[in-house]
Amino acid sequence: MKAIRTKRSLYNMEELVFVITPDEEDGGFCAAAVGVPIFTQGDDWLDLCAMVLDATKCYYYDSEPPATVRLMLREQVLKVA
């Protein structure tokens, strides 16, 4: 028998990962979830953390949210001339 995966089961995960980038235009930080369409921003790190948790709860309002959220800063390598 073949299992059928629904939208709900595809997004039911243990950990949700956000890639964090500095918001160079307005200051603060931007956060984009990997694999699900969740985007948010914060004026500073504590504000960003609160906004990420709020956006995650809002996205999963009708289903089980992930157990944890991981915030990953974008790594950038610069070449020295």
From TrEMBL:
It comes from the Bacteria. This is 2-oxoisovalerate dehydrogenase, E1 component beta subunit. It comes from Granulicella tundricola (strain ATCC BAA-1859 / DSM 23138 / MP5ACTX9).
